[in-house]
Amino acid sequence: MIKKLVFHIGDPKCGSTAIQAAMQKNACVPARTTLVSQREFNASALANVMARSNQQRIKNQLLEKREWCESHKADIGLISAEFFERVAPEQFDAALKEYLPEYVPDVRAIAYVRPHSSRLISGYAQRIKTGAFIGDLSECTDKMCAGTLLQYYPRFFRWKKLLHDRFILRPFTRNELKSGDIVDDFFSQVLCGEEYTLQTVEPSNESLSLEELAGLLIVQEGLIQGGVPKHLRLPIGAAVARQLSKKSNRLWTKLLLDKRNAEKMYVRFRDDARALDAEFFQRPLMENELLHAVETSIENEQSLKASQFFSEKKIEKLRKISGRISMLPAEDMKSWHQEYQIETGQIFGKKSRKAILFFRKAREREVWNAVDEIVDHLLP
Question: DSSP of 116-144, one letter per residue?
Answer without folding.
Answer: HHHHHHHHHHHHHHHTS--S-HHHHHHHH
